[in-house]
Structure formats: C-alpha cells, structure tokens
Description:
Rossmann fold, single chain, alpha/beta, disordered C terminus
Amino acid sequence: xxxxxxxxxxxxxxxxxxxxxxxxxxxxxxxxxxxxxxxxxxxxxxxxxxxxxxxxxxxxxxxxxxxxxxxxxxxxxxxxxxxxxxxxxxxxxxxxxxxxxxxxxxxxxxxxxxxxxxxxxxxxxxxxxxxxxxxxxxxxxxxxxxxxxxxxxxxxxxxxxxxxxxxxxxxxxxxxxxxxxxxxxxxxxxxxxxxxxxxxxxxxxxxxxxxxxxxxxxxxxxxxxxxxxxxxxxxxxxxxxxxxxxxxxxxxxxxxxxxxxxxxxxxxxxxxxxxxxxxxxxxxxxxxxxxxxxxxxxxxxxxxxxxxxxxxxxxxxxxxxxxxxxxxxxxxxxxxxxxxxxxxxxxxxxxxxxxxxxxxxxxxxxxxxxxxxxxxxxxxxxxxxxxxxxxxxxxxxxxxxxxxxxxxxxxxxxxxxxxxxxxxxxxxxxxxxxxxxxxxxxxxxxxxxxxxxxxxxxxxxxx
Length: 463
C-alpha cells in the first residue's frame, strides 16, 4: 500500500474517531442534562410531597381501594378535607378531619379477621353499626364525633351495667347489599348484641341519579369496563399498557402477531365511559328505565331483612338515613301520630296513594335527569314504609327488630335542618350527636328493661 493510501486511511480513521468522540460527548451532555432535569423534578416532587397532608399515602380514585366481595372501601389517609355547604363565609366551609382507620378503611381501632371470633369481655356488649359515608363519618372531625362515636359515648355515660362497644362497619359509597356482604364477611366474628343500619340514600341515588340501574353499586360500570376490556378481554393481559401501545394493537396486525395481545374493546353498553372523565362518570345519564327504581326498592327491603337474619340472636335497628330536605316533603304527616293509631294508618294510606300515583305515571318511562328528585322521593318514602313492615314482621318480645326514620329527630323545615348537616346527605357533628343519643336511648331502653326483669338489683346501677 502506498504512503498516500496509508495517509488517507489514517485521515479517515482520525475523522471517524473525531465523529465518534463528538457523538459520545454530545450523548454524555444529553444524559447529563436528563440527569439534572430528573434530579430537579425529584427535588420539587419531594418538596411538594413533604407539604402534603397525606404525604407518603397513595391518593386513589374517590378515596377508594379494592377489597374482596364488597368491591371498594375508603382509603386510610392521615387527613381528610370536608366542606360545610351551609356554613357562612368561604373560609368556614372547609374543615379538616383526622380519622384512625384500620387497613380495610373502617373507622375501627383494630384489624378485622373473618377467621376467628373477636374476644368479648364480661358484661361487654357489641353494637355493629353500618351504612354509607354518613355512617362512616363524613362531616365529623375524628372517630369520636361521628354517629358511632357519639352513640358509644352516650351508651356508656348513661349506665354502668354494661360496657358498650360500637363497631363502625359503614363505608363511603356503599349501598345496602355491600353492607350485608361486609357484615357477613367480617361482622360475624363479633358476638353482636345489636345490629344497626342507617342507609337508603346511596341505594336510591345510584339507580337514576347516577344511572346505574337497580342492584348495581357505585363504580360498577368503570370496574366492569376495565375488567371486560382488559383482564377478561385479552388472551395475554399485561399489567401495564399505554395509549401508544393500544393504538398499535388496534391498527397493526404485525404487532398483534408478535405480542399475542389484542386492543381494548369496551362493551357497547359501557362505551359512554370513553367520553367522560373518571370524576364525571358517575353523572353520565344513560337509558335507564324508571321501573329500575321499583326494582331497587324490592332489592333494598329484602337486603334489610337479610341483614337482620345474619345475626339471629342480636337485636336490630333498621333505620333510614336523614337528609337536609324538608322532612314532610318525602313523608307527609305519617310521623305526626303514634304508631298503631287510626290517624297514623290513615296518613300512611294517603302517602301510599300518592306513591301509587307516581308509579302509575312513571313506571313505563325513562328516569330522566330532570326527575332525580321525584325518583328519589318515591324511593325514600317507599323504603321507609317497607322497612317498617319488615321490622314489625320480624320483631319478637325476646328479640326486637325496630325501625326508625332518623330524619324525624330534626326540625321539619329546610332552614332549621341546615344546622345539623354539612351538605344534603351528610350531617354535621351537631346532627351526629343527636342521632348518637337517639340510638343509645333505643338500645338502653331495651337492654336495661331486660336486665331489670332478670335481676331487679341491676336497676340501681343505671344512671
């Protein structure tokens, strides 16, 4: 090889090395910039998290997390923020709450175990209390100021014969059948002396107001869409898939062949989810027929019966959750007269006639967004009458099953009732205190009377 050729090869080699060197330097600079940006974002993120009230805790959709059979429960957080819609002034509306929850999202001070009985002390009495978010404690500031906490306080303050423990099995967003499942799953580990339900609002709201139809819990459509389109709709479902990959799967036979995957196909009855945000999905109206309200009424009343049957030795209070609405607006004057009186029977007949008129007009029509109030009014009044009849049919002198409409313990008109509520369906601590006292009064009037009948000397211990 000539000197010129050797020189040319060396020049090319030198230029190649220079190019590689430049590329390497630029790559290092690029990686350095990425590292600096990453460090910067991590610093900002860490600073932001350190200022969050729930630092180190995952914020989930609507404060919820998955649990077997019940579908979802409240996520245990250090802090919750609520708002009082009826407070004066913007600053006074928002307030913080700090609850101590167990890992299953219940306002209970210990972990639940369905596999073994929970220990019970001498003269100790267990009260299992359940419902939706109002029972859980939205509107209270801590474990002691929700309905269950106030109930336990008054039960133990007003007597010394028994040591009462109120176990709060309420959970946010639940309908009555989820309460039933939770009590069957976790609650039977407790030798319950009393079982109390305070519900009805979620059962009625979800049918038309949230367009779920009868017998379908909150978030049902979102969960069904994910499961049917992703987990059960794939031959090789993977846990992580982005928008880009799903687009490739939709349009590329080659990519589908290589990966063995298929694109997400949401069932046609759930495709409305694609046009809504996660936060707004519960409010999307679909073609739900009004007759679903009537189906849900039957479902609710039967569920109340089944909850009472879960604990054949326990006394039971089946109660309707109060709302801020004018009380007579739903129930007319049926609570103005004593139970069993001819006047009350007449008032019930008049209410039933009004409900039948609503049914006759609506039974073959769609729910309709404009009819949320009318739909709910029909449901609320109907379940009150139906649940009271269930309680009467199941009650015995030895094992009372009691029905109470808790809304009747507040004033009738809306303006007077606002002081007991923070929003249309959640009570303030003042309202929770009222209900805590009422539940305690019902329980003690039964337990202490039986105690005195069995041992008259016990009457001296009651305060």
